[in-house]
Backbone:
């Protein structure tokens, strides 16, 4: 492992185990395989890229929404090609990753045919970073833009009361023989997840991040959690946040942040909302030289001392396939959830020539019996009871 400081408060955990822990927690809370897999993969990739505020940190919120029944863990979103350049995906009140995964290819293909294509995702619950969707578009050769609103946490410039969500925007540009150029940022001075992590870890935040409950600027994240966040860049960020409210709200047929909050059940997870995603073909718009031409700007930027391109930190982290240091309290909490679940759910693992592979997840013995019947030859089936480990031969 390189470049990561492991403190007393963290435990190292491998990327496959991060995925598995997230997947098992989600399955235990009632999500089916497709939904749990899509969310767990998003969570694992966030931890992999150092986007820790969208990694395992989000799992308790995801679980709360499944347990309260607000989110449908069996959502089966099907993107619909409404016009050659417009795709609509009704999220069936599921978490957003499955709907996004199923829509991205269609969106990129539409942009490659029409030059520009848009996706409106509605009736979904977005609790993640936006770079997975914009980067996926740029990996398919088109420029991506995405925005999503949330629940009021940010005071418009000049105000002291929350009206806007932290309303992130992301942009991705395909590059020659390199990962896409991506930026992904809250339009709040700081994302709420980052403020929560700073509060948890007793770090101060820069002045201008938010106001305490008395409306005064403060560096104390715990005070900001009782007050409001501020938009980045004063009235300019405030205007962009307002744009996101409109684009991820009425423009796609969904509500504003304040409307989402009004209808939310307050379970601590993301409210229902919409996402707007745009894909543009630079090949159709700009002609053959677009990629080479863009590289000139990137080389120029990188020639200045002290400047790096957005997304580079994540891509550097991604090259490290070693374990990640995860907050120990969080990890113990998630493992505790699974242990408490005990006899009600089982991981069915196949041990083939000493190579243990995850096979399936079962909620009851009947499903395990069915899995047992599939075991052939020299394989050994192990049923992992969380706290009690039992081997069946
Ligand atoms: P940051 O301020 O950490 O980073 C914003 C962008 O700036 C990133 O693309 C980052 O690239 C880039 N960047 C950071 N430092 C530099 C630098 N010195 N030079 C050049 N580029 C730099 O992100 P935020 O805290 O604003 O947002 C964090 C995440 O929270 C985002 O992924 C966002 O989508 C998510 N979010 C999700 C919400 C939701 O409702 N789903 C709500 C709000 C936020 P790099 O990653 O390489 O550092």
Residues:
């Amino acid at each position: 492992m390189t470049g990561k400081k492991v403190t007393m408060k963290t435990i190292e955990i491998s990327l496959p185990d991060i995925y598995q822990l997230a997947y098992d927690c989600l399955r235990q809370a009632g999500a089916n395989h497709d939904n749990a897999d899509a969310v767990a993969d998003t969570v694992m990739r966030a931890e992999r890229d150092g986007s820790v505020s969208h990694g395992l940190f989000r799992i308790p919120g995801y679980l709360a929404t499944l347990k309260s029944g607000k989110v449908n863990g069996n959502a089966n979103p099907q993107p619909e090609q409404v016009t050659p350049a417009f795709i609509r995906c009704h999220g069936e009140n599921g978490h957003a990753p499955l709907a996004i995964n199923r829509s991205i290819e269609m969106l990129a293909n539409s942009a490659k045919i029409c030059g520009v294509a848009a996706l409106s995702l509605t009736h979904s619950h977005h609790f993640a970073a936006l770079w997975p969707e914009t980067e996926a578009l740029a990996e398919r050769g088109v420029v991506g833009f995405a925005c999503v609103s949330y629940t009021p946490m940010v005071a418009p410039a000049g105000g002291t009361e929350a009206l806007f969500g932290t309303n992130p925007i992301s942009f991705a540009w395909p590059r020659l023989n390199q990962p896409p150029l991506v930026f992904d940022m809250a339009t709040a001075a700081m994302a709420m997840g980052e403020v929560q992590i700073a509060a948890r870890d007793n770090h101060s935040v820069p002045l201008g991040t938010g106001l305490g409950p008395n409306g005064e600027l403060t560096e104390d994240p715990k005070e900001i959690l009782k007050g409001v966040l501020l938009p980045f860049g004063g009235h300019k960020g405030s205007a962009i946040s307002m744009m996101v409210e409109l684009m991820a709200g009425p423009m796609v047929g969904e509500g504003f942040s304040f409307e989402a909050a009004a209808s939310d059940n307050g379970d601590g997870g993301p409210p229902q909302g919409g996402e707007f995603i745009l894909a543009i073909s630079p090949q159709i718009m700009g002609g053959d030289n677009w990629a080479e031409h863009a590289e000139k700007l990137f080389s120029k930027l990188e020639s200045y001392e002290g400047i790096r391109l957005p997304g580079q930190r994540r891509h550097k982290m991604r090259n490290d396939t070693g374990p990640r240091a995860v907050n120990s309290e969080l990890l113990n909490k998630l493992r505790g959830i699974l242990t408490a679940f005990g006899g009600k759910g089982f991981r069915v693992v196949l041990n083939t020539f000493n190579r243990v592979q995850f096979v399936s997840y079962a909620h009851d013995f009947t499903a395990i019996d069915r899995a047992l019947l599939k075991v052939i030859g020299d394989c050994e089936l192990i049923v992992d009871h969380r706290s009690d480990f039992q081997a069946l031969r």
